[in-house]
């Protein structure tokens, strides 16, 4: 049974501006595992897309849950990739919920959709 749906769209230049202004911005958004994956990406632009995609996915999850980011910490949510490269979502306190996530990027935007199922 579907328990929630959330989506988010973010401008890449907003994320880039935040990263450029504040070196700790990525550390606030990304978990240790996500940061490690991000640091391994080949270009600065690809890292911005990665951070933006994770930001959008976490915002979409908060919308699907219905609480917003204020009640959830970015550090309590993690989006990694399986062996095929597909993203998967893990959230503390939501281990019994099946979480589907899709992330996409364009030249100017990153978007994510999350569906929660019990």
TrEMBL record:
Q: Which residues constitute the signal peptide according to the record?
A: none
**Cofactor(s) this protein requires:** Mg(2+)
Source domain of life is Bacteria
**Where is this protein primarily located?**
cytoplasm
Where can this protein be found?
Cytoplasm
**Which molecular function GO terms apply here?**
holo-[acyl-carrier-protein] synthase activity
The 4'-phosphopantetheinyl transferase domain covers: 4-112
Q: Which residues form a coiled coil?
A: none
Keywords linked to the UniProt accession:
Cytoplasm, Fatty acid biosynthesis, Fatty acid metabolism, Lipid biosynthesis, Lipid metabolism, Magnesium, Metal-binding, Transferase
Residues annotated as binding Mg(2+) are 8, 59
Query: What are its E.C. numbers?
Result: 2.7.8.7
Describe the reaction catalysed, as an equation.
Answer: apo-[ACP] + CoA = holo-[ACP] + adenosine 3',5'-bisphosphate + H(+)
* Sequence similarity: Belongs to the P-Pant transferase superfamily. AcpS family.
Function description: Transfers the 4'-phosphopantetheine moiety from coenzyme A to a Ser of acyl-carrier-protein.
Q: Please state what the protein is called.
A: Holo-[acyl-carrier-protein] synthase
The record lists the organism as Oceanobacillus longus
